[in-house]
Amino acid sequence: MTTAVLAESKPGIQERVAELRGQIVAVQSKLEAMLRSAGAVQVILPGLHDKASGRINARKVATYMGVPLKRLAEGLQLNYKAVHRNPSAESLQPSLKPVKRSLELLHEFFNKPQTVRVWLNTPHPDLDGRTALDMILADNPNAVLRILENAAAGVPV
Question: What is the mean pLDDT of residues 52-73?
Answer without folding.
Answer: 98
